[in-house]
Amino acid sequence: MTAADKYPVSLAPNEGWDERILVCHCGNMVDNYIVVSDRYVVLVDTMISPQTAMVMLELAGQYAGNGRQLLVINTHADYDHCWGNQLFVGHKAAYPAPIIAMRRCAERFYTPEAHEVLIRMQHEAPEVYGDVVLVPPTILFDDHLTIEGGDLTLRLFATPGHQTDHISIVIPEISTLLAGDAAELPFPFALSSMTLAQMRASLAQLAAFNATTVLYCHAPVTAGPELLQQNIAYFNLLEQHCRDAMDLGVPAQPTANDDVAALVGFSTAEAFGIDKGQTLPNSYVRGHNEQIRMMLAYLGRA
Fold it and tell me: Considering the entire predicted model, what is its pTM?
């Protein structure tokens, strides 16, 4: 079994967005994008492996020709967004193309943590990640970069918080925003309490575009711009609960065994607007508790 077998790559049916944007599902793990302009075919992220990136490239192949150049973008250096890079860069690259990303994204490829994650995941799922090689992007920028595609303009800009190297993309001609992991369902995950404020500022920046179409890497294609407001509202409510709890004596650093949702009076059911009897994926529950701890730590420092 290969990565493409376990996480099949397929095109999402167009739900009304501009036909020059193609949404590529990688199983139920992540969505990546293809943007077709007069001058370029742009792959936004390279999925989880060279096999899945290859299928994505095949989907884009029908738009090659007519003088269009292949470009690749990494929104950030998390594994589900860039582990297909080797298909495009290096002496063994089958389809050479520039890979564009923030400078901090390239730096993350050289960290011990990046190699530790690769080794661990190759051990856990060799059939999926066994042939992945970490290949950093090749064209680097710091905060903003514009790709003039002829009919479409891709404006890349920093949206840190989830990761320090994260970028999002706005395409003004079609009022479209590719949010990446800066917004998610049920909420984006901050890297740490130190980046929580950055993530909330990034959400506000994304919402300020008032884009008609907003697409995410970890949310249904039908989530729409409303998800940005839902994410913002969640963190606003989280902050208020944590502030109120700290006023009553809840510490900024609860013990590892504390039920932090109960401590601050912000249950998972309330956070996600569900009935108390309903169950949620454990990842949502863990994520909610982690965000509470981050918010308490952030407010404690503030």
Answer: 0.94
